[in-house]
Amino acid sequence: HSPAPVSLFNPERDILLPGDQMLPAQSPFVGARPDNPTAAPLGDYLDYLALLEPHVREETLVLPGHGLPFRGAPHQLRETRTHHGRRCARLIEACVGRPMTVRALLDALIPSTSIDMLPLRIADILSHVNLLHRNGGLEPVDDGHVVAWRATRNG
Predict the structure, then answer these.
(1) Distance of CA 78 to CAs 22, 26, 81, 107, 108, Å?
(2) What are residue 116's phi and psi, to 5 degrees?
(3) pLDDT given at position 154
(4) Over the stretch 40-67, which tens digit does the pLDDT of each residue have?
């Protein structure tokens, strides 16, 4: 869960060692970090996926940091981008017509979050919110005590 992970790719052998950047059948954790809560690491991660995609094939052997080796990297990359796109769309929908705090957004998207997963889930939602803010889909509403988010008119 490094802020600057490294992936290794050997095109001659068609082997990718992505660390935690690509996992079998799931998206890795890409949350905002406490030392930089306004960052949008999800944007950096999606940019990484876009850079990686032209180099991998269905036959590429992926040796992830967790889980079993797998093939089908292009499919996994598409699934991961689709997952985050849906999450962003749901966050915007939740903020249409009423400002929502990050905690309220978490409750709207993942209502049964256990207390031990709460910090990671909030960091995950915050990373999505920060990306949406950077891209113009959400804007902050500050009432002097709490920052909430609302959908922009063109988001």
Answers:
(1) 11, 11, 5, 27, 25
(2) -70, -20
(3) 55
(4) 999 999 999 999 999 999 999 999 998 9
- 3-class SS of residue 16: strand
Tokens encoding 14: 């068609």
Long-range contacts formed by 85-94: CB under 8 A, 24+ apart: 87/128, 88/128, 88/131, 88/132, 88/137, 91/125, 91/128, 91/129, 91/132, 91/137, 91/138, 91/149, 92/132, 92/137, 92/138, 92/151, 92/155, 93/151
Question: What is the model's pTM?
Answer: 0.89
Measured distance CA(51)–CA(99) in Å, rounded: 35
pLDDT tens digits, residue range 125-150? 999 999 999 999 999 998 777 789 99
Q: In the numeric block, which tokens belong to residue 46?
A: 């999606």
